[in-house]
């Protein structure tokens, strides 16, 4: 029965057999604001057999602080009643529990682990850790000591936490006594499981029960006394808050590249290197010298203008003997090549972009093509000059030889004539 009535009730010489419920198969008492709201109820000489519930209180469930003064079980028998918590009774605490008087073997029943159960009443540090007097650490570091607590009820029964539903969960929180000088991060809230509540890796509203706190001394060491701090591996500065400094190791993950210095918190100092970026992984782009770029721009633009004037002049005076001797087309190709070369230099002074890079390489390779074409034409001209000279020399030599032969023939003829004259003279003398 659910009891929150304004009238008194007496149940006498009755048996409660095979009742099933979620909590409190016979009596379920919720919290009431005043004792007057909960009138007297008494079970006299009653039997409670084979009753079961799925959660708390096989016979009675009570969370009212006035239950002990108003509800009585007198000379009753309890046999084979079951519940997850409290086979006979489950109460918020012993003050919320009904009175059990004239009960045979009542002390034996209460000494049983699960016959009478209350809400958690107090916690103590695990026996294996009870020798810990204090914990030392540096500000901002994790408390790596594994603290484990046991939770007990008013009957000194250790509570075993095996939850089936979320509402059965027992939770805890970790709080500092000095909220101004101490700030906790990390797992400051948690829940209990099996037979203990474990607190670990601390760096940083539930139903309250009395004696639910346990104190452990925590000593914060001076970061400057840390050997690692003295050799430059630790930092001491505001990190977690603007009030309390933290002592922490300088860590960069991934590590700094190209001789960058780790400042901690994944920040690298790239000063003195040729790189920038979070990890000094990006090659630094130097600022352009505007004055130098402007000077180059003026000179190059002037040369382009001058080459353009020269092209016009060569074409205009193309019939001039000196220009014709050098080759009009040849000179124009040379001047156009210089314009592309000057254009390439001019683009070097501009900011890099996709278009400027395309134009830059185009101008450069056009200039190279014209330069090679110019030299090929020059080689061809020299080849023709050498061939013509050789032919002329051969012709001259041949002509000279013919003249010499003719002279020799004339001399021979003269000699023959002289001989004939001599013969005639001899004949006359005879």
Low-confidence stretches: 198-207, 383-430
Residues in helix, %: 25-40%
DSSP strand (E) fraction?
15-25%
Molecular shape:
rod-shaped
Compact overview of the structure:
33% of the residues lie in helices and 21% in strands. It is an alpha/beta fold and 430 residues long.
Verbal overview:
The protein is built from 7 helices and 26 strands. It is an alpha/beta fold and 430 residues long. It folds into 4 domains: 9-118, no CATH class; 122-223; 229-283, no CATH class; 290-394. Helix 4 (290-316) packs antiparallel against helix 6 and helix 6 (328-348) runs antiparallel to helix 7. Mean pLDDT is 74; it is low at 198-207 and 383-430.
Write the layout of secondary structure elements.
Elements: E1 9-12, E2 15-17, E3 20-21, E4 27-29, E5 41-44, E6 47-49, E7 52-53, E8 60-62, H1 67-70, E9 71-74, E10 77-79, E11 89-91, E12 99-101, H2 106-111, E13 116-118, E14 122-125, E15 134-138, E16 147-152, E17 171-173, E18 189-191, E19 197-199, E20 217-221, H3 227-230, E21 234-238, E22 245-249, E23 261-264, E24 267-269, E25 275-276, E26 282-283, H4 290-316, H5 321-326, H6 328-348, H7 354-429
Parallel strand pairs: 1-5, 2-6, 3-7, 4-8, 5-9, 6-10, 8-11, 9-12, 11-13, 15-20
Antiparallel strand pairs: 14-16, 16-19, 17-18, 21-22, 23-24, 25-26
Helix pairs in contact: 4-6, 6-7
Looking at this protein, list some descriptive labels:
alpha/beta, rod-shaped, disordered C terminus
């Amino acid at each position: 029965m659910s009891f929150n009535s304004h009238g008194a009730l007496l149940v006498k010489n009755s048996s409660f057999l095979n009742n099933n419920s979620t909590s409190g198969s016979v009596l379920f008492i919720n919290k009431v604001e005043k004792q007057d709201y909960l009138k007297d109820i008494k079970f006299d000489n009653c039997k409670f057999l084979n009753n079961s519930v799925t959660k708390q209180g096989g016979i009675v469930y009570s969370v009212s602080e006035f239950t002990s003064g108003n509800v009585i079980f007198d000379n009753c028998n309890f046999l084979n009643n079951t519940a997850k918590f409290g086979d006979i009774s489950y109460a918020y605490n012993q003050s919320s529990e009904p009175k059990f008087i004239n009960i045979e073997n009542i002390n034996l029943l209460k000494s049983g682990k699960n016959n009478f159960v209350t809400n958690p009443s107090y916690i103590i540090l695990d026996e294996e850790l009870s020798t810990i007097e204090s914990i030392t650490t540096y500000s901002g570091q994790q408390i790596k000591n594994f603290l484990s607590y046991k939770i007990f009820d008013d009957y000194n029964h250790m509570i075993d936490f095996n939850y089936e539903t979320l509402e059965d969960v027992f939770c805890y929180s970790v709080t500092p006594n000095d909220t101004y000088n101490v700030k906790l991060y990390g797992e400051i809230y948690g829940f209990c499981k099996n037979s203990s509540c474990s607190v670990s890796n601390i760096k940083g509203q539930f139903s309250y029960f009395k004696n639910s706190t346990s104190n452990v001394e925590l000593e914060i060491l001076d970061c400057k006394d840390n050997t690692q701090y003295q050799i430059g591996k630790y930092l001491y500065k505001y990190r977690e808050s603007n009030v309390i400094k933290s002592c922490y190791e300088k860590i960069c993950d991934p590590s700094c590249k190209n001789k960058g210095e780790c400042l901690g918190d994944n920040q690298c100092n790239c000063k003195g290197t040729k790189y920038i970026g979070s990890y000094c992984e990006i090659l630094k782009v130097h600022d352009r010298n505007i004055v130098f770029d402007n000077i180059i721009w003026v000179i190059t633009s002037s040369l382009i203008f001058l080459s353009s004037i020269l092209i016009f002049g060569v074409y205009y005076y193309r019939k001039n003997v000196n220009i014709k001797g050098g080759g009009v087309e040849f000179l124009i190709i040379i001047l156009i090549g210089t314009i592309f070369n000057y254009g390439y230099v001019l683009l070097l002074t501009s900011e890099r972009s996709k278009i400027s890079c395309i134009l830059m390489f185009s101008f450069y390779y056009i200039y190279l093509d014209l330069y090679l074409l110019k030299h090929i034409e020059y080689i061809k001209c020299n080849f023709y000059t050498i061939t013509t000279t050789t032919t002329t020399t051969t012709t001259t030599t041949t002509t000279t030889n013919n003249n010499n032969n003719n002279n020799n023939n004339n001399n021979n003829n003269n000699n023959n004539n002289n001989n004939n004259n001599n013969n005639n003279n001899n004949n006359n003398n005879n």
